[in-house]
Amino acid sequence: MTVQTRRFCYRLSEAPLAGGEVAIVGAGPGDPGLLTLRALSLLQQAECLVFDRLVSQDILDMAPENADTYYVGKASRCHALTQTQTNELMVELSRQGKRVVRLKGGDPFIFGRGGEEAEYLIEHGVTFRVVPGITSASGCSTYAGFPLTHRDHAQSVTFVTGHCKSDNCLELNWEALAAPHQTIVFYMGLANAALISRELTGRGLPGSHPVALVERGTTAEQRQVSTTLSDLVATIEREELKPPTLIVVGEVVRLAETLAVARPRDVSAETHQLVEAVAW
Q1: 87-91, 168-172, 176-180, 198-202: segment of lowest average pLDDT
Q2: Which of 58, 68, 74, 231 is the catalytic position?
Q3: How far apart are CA 33 and CA 28, in angstroms?
Q4: 46 within 8 A of 17, measured Cβ to Cβ
Q5: pLDDT band at 261 (very low <50, low <70, confident <90, very high)
Q6: Are 199 and 174 within 8 A, CB to CB?
Q7: pTM, whole model, 2 decimals?
Q8: What domains are defined for the chain?
Q9: Of 52, 98, 104, 107, which residue is the catalytic one?
Q10: Does the annotation count 31 as an active-site position?
Q11: What is the pLDDT of residue 170?
């Protein structure tokens, strides 16, 4: 079946990206359909594109063909550029008078170091703007078929970084995280799954407490696995899960079995949708 969507323009209430200005833009969790209109508009104005590892090729292809691209992706113990070098690159491109889009997976201000980069730009007198994106926790849980909150199961949700900045690894308030009736989402937590399991069960959560693992969420390669706290490490090893994988702990993950109908459907090759974003 072919679906045709009428062509439309959306008038954005902001000035075009100026020469020497940096736009820190959230690209969302992977699916290009989750990019905001504002993000798309700025992306199409970029002369220089500074992008992270988790930004999909489909999104990069939306930038002008003549835009200069700079990969600054980070994986565990493998950084194309250090954070300091990335900061310096943005300032240098700005001083060349370029329109710079700093494209980051998810939301720049949720475990995306967007705050650090904004501080650096301010210190060096660079004009910038920030565009929020759909964060991985929201996108991945929705595509996996369960909500993050539910009146019967979780009255709060907590986003936690599972990545260690130093040897003092994951100094978290485990007592608070182990409280009932909430959902905990661990970003970048695979390497510390054993610690997460041990600390949460040691603070009172049962070993049978449900966990969802969502690998490469919202993309065509999405894979999700259901497990429990006690079986978390064994499941990761057995399924050979790799980053980026989100760890979601809470009763809400059981709802995926009944809410599967709410999952976004695959878009066939015959389905075409056209969206134009125009900024004035």
Answers
A1: 168-172
A2: 74
A3: 9
A4: yes
A5: low
A6: yes
A7: 0.88
A8: 9-135+268-279 (3.40.1010.10), 146-262 (3.30.950.10)
A9: 52
A10: no
A11: 74
**CB-CB contact of 100 with 106 (8 Å):** no
52 is catalytic: yes
Statement: residue 277 has pLDDT above 70? no
Which pLDDT score, from 0 to 100, does residue 267 have?
43
**Residue 128: strand pairing partners:** 22
**Both tokens assigned to 160:** 């936690």
Burial of 183 per CB tally in 10 Å (0-12, 13-18, 19+): buried
Q: How far apart are CA 267 and CA 18, in angstroms?
A: 36
State the residue for tokens 């104005």.
45
pLDDT digits (tens, 9 = 90+) for 94-131: 999 999 999 999 999 999 999 999 999 999 999 999 99
Amino acid at 95: R
Residue whose tokens read 């040897």: 167
Beta bridge mates, 103: 25, 51
